Amino acid sequence: MTGSRCGARARASVRMLACVGLLVLMPGAALAQATPDYAAVVASSDRSDADREIDKRRDPVKLLAFTGVGAGMKVLDMGAGGGYSSELMARAVGAHIAADLGARAKERFEARMKTPAMAKVVALVLPFDDPLPADVRDLDLVTFFFFYHDTTYMEVDRAEMNRKLYAALKPGGMLVIADHSARPGDGATVGKTFHRIEEAVLRSEVEAAGFRFVAEGDFLRHPEDARDFPVNRPTGPVDEFVLKFRKPN
Questions:
Q1: How many CB atoms are closer than 10 A to CB 149?
Q2: Which residue has the higher pLDDT, 189 or 45?
Q3: DSSP letter string over 108-142?
Q4: Which tens digit of pLDDT belongs to each residue from 125-181?
């Protein structure tokens, strides 16, 4: 759910880093609020025209609802790109963390950090397979939107990354991953060429860290997608999966 597809990411040739921003918890009064009005969050008048354009292909109201993000939660958003999803989560929750690499995306994220919506964000830069300081734990939610596939061709230990995400969540905490779907049999081999990953392979890697599969969202599905072209140069609709995992109590 980033502000661009994958162009800036593909140019990186060094160890993949996560630009991580941590939001503090909302005040006590906010913690008692009901589930946020996600439609109102997306409709906020101070959101940029660029973000509204991205809304057209991201269905953010349904995606936010699927995550269950709410006031007072502590959230880690891996692979945040220019910060599109990070800002939406920040508006919905009051506690957030984000991740990215690439000069252009870094510039967009830094510019976004200056906006009021991101006032509670603290940015850090750490490797994807070691994305959090040791004292950051008991997260309520980790989101990983349209970036997991990039870790397949970078210098990232994905097994270690998933173990660290598991460890950072509190018991009962959730991990929600959305990505571009690859063809059966493509596995993790087309991350750099098509910017896709096979759903079954991703799920297997995540479950190997101890996560339990909870649910799948079908609101970004496009079964007509042949999945034989790069998503950053689409020739038609792109099939995208959204998966929810839980850390057992």
A1: 25
A2: 189
A3: HHHHHTTSGGGTTEEEEEEETTS-S-TT---EEEE
A4: 778 898 888 888 899 999 999 999 999 999 899 999 999 999 999 999 999 999 999
Cα separation, 195 vs 152, in Å, equals 10
Q: Is the pLDDT of residue 117 over 50?
A: yes
CA-CA-CA-CA torsion sign (231, 62, 112, 151): negative
Q: How many CA atoms lie within 13 A of 219 on its CB side?
A: 16
Please answer whether residues 86 and 69 qualify as being in contact, where contact means their C-beta atoms are separated by less than 8 angstroms: no
Name the residue among 67, 66, 64, 62 with its Cα closest to residue 91: 64
**Inter-residue contact 192 to 153 (CB < 8 Å):** yes
pTM for the predicted model, two decimal places = 0.82
Q: Count CB atoms within 10 A of the CB of residue 39.
A: 11
Give CA angle at 77 (114, 217), nearest 5°. 130
- What is the number of other CB atoms lying within 10 angstroms of the CB of residue 24? 13
Total length of the chain: 249
| Predicted confidence band of residue 120 (pLDDT cuts 50, 70, 90) | low
